[in-house]
Amino acid sequence: MIPIAKPLIGEAEVEAVSSVLRSGMIAQGPKVAEFEEAFAKYTGVEHAIAVNSGTAALHVSLLANGIGQGDEVITSSFSFIATGNSILATGARPVFADIRPDTFNIDPDSILEKITPKTRAIMPVHLYGQPADMQAIGEIAEDHNLAVIEDACQAHGASFNGKRVGSFGTGSFSFYPTKNMTTSEGGMITTDDAQVAEKARMIRAHGSKQRYMHEIPGCNYRMTDIAAAIGLVQLDRIDEFNSARQKNASVLTDGLRDLDYITTPVVREGCEHVYHQYTVRTENRDTLADYLKDNGVGCGIYYPIPIHQQPLYKELGYTDNLPETEKAADEVLSLPVHPAVEEKDIEHIITTIRNRE
Ligand SMILES: *Cc1c(COP(=O)(O)O)cnc(C)c1O
After folding, report:
1. Which of 66, 96, 312, 352 has the most crowded CB, counting CB atoms within 10 A?
2. Would the keyword Ion transport be found if you checked this record's keyword annotation (predicted)?
3. Which ligand 1 atom is at minimum distance from the Cα of 185?
């Protein structure tokens, strides 16, 4: 079976972890600081704050922007549950805008329809590795005085008009093993705003700047030096990983684009897509998925149930009607595109799909 995801952990990562273990400094220490500096530079921002998951990064980003009880945050329902749940965790209310059918990213026109006097922030998700429309979102945020918090958990290294995601507002990244780069579990907050950065650092460690002096509420969201050591090696390899994803995606698209029952990914002008997922649209999605699995092709559905239709959100009273989101949830299918997928695997995926006709 060609797996849908596979982290690439090499000898360099093993060595880096061993050396941290031997040092005895195994919680947050110098490796975390080094990783933060390198990741800030890579993303093109002044500050990066490492935490222990992407969910923690989203939660801290929201809190550091002052989001809480009584506020509304407009985001996409077509995402991993953490997008909505991190907003709930602050006490604020997630408000779901619909998506664009071509890119699966939040639709700026739908954002405008959802703005109320309680709206405080927009949280676009750069889904599958393709940047959301940061031009339109930036303009809406400016007109309505809203914070922008980017869920960049799937988009390390992606760019919009030449600027890396995570540098438009407060960025939130995940380093879970299936993402474009990993630290095992881990996350990162990125920002140019010194105040947001300082608050994020405090929230990460129980609201303290100085040990045993606690000024604001916080959690223990610290990253370990063990994780940061893996991250430093992976960051050196991220461009190579992303290029391999882009090459695999381009061969898949060349092999599938003429099939009339499959819509291959659309890359919007000015966007660099880093293909966290290679996602097609097809009407008989479930039969195609079963056929592919029977023929050795691991595939995935991201996401079969939009956030607003999850049991928790129904319980909370969400009754939204988001037609493009709901249609996408029925039609998307992701094919293996990660750097461990070899040329012969890509050929196998294409011929398997083509032979079905
Ligand atoms: C993975 C992911 C998260 C959460 O990251 P974790 O590290 O698993 O907590 C949030 N949002 C999106 C879009 C993701 O893909």
Report:
1. 96
2. no
3. 7
**The CATH number fitting domain 238-354, selected from 3.40.50.2000, 3.90.1150.10, 1.10.760.10, 1.10.8.60:** 3.90.1150.10
Stretch 190-202: mean pLDDT: 98
Instruction: Give the dihedral sign, CA 33/184/235/203.
Output: negative
- This prediction has a pTM of 0.98
- Token pair 């939660």 is found at 59
Give the closest residue (by CA) to ligand 1 atom 10: 82
- Residues 54-86, buried b or exposed e (16+ Cβ, 10 A)? bbbbbbbbbbbbebeeebbbbbbbbbbebbbbb
Mean pLDDT of 216-226: 97
Instruction: Find out whether the beta carbon of 203 lies less than 6 Å from any atom of ligand 1.
Output: no
Ordered by start, the domain boundaries in the chain are 11-232, 238-354
Q: What percent of the chain has pLDDT over 90?
A: 99
Position 357 scores a pLDDT of 64
Q: What CATH topology corresponds to 11-232?
A: Aspartate Aminotransferase; domain 2 (3.40.640)
Could you give the CA distance from residue 30 to residue 349 in angstroms, rounded to a whole number? 44
Q: Which residue has the tokens 């797996």?
A: 3
Task: State mean pLDDT over 76-98.
Answer: 98
Q: Which residues are CB-contacts of 115 (< 8 A; sequence separation ≥ 6)?
A: 74, 140, 144, 146
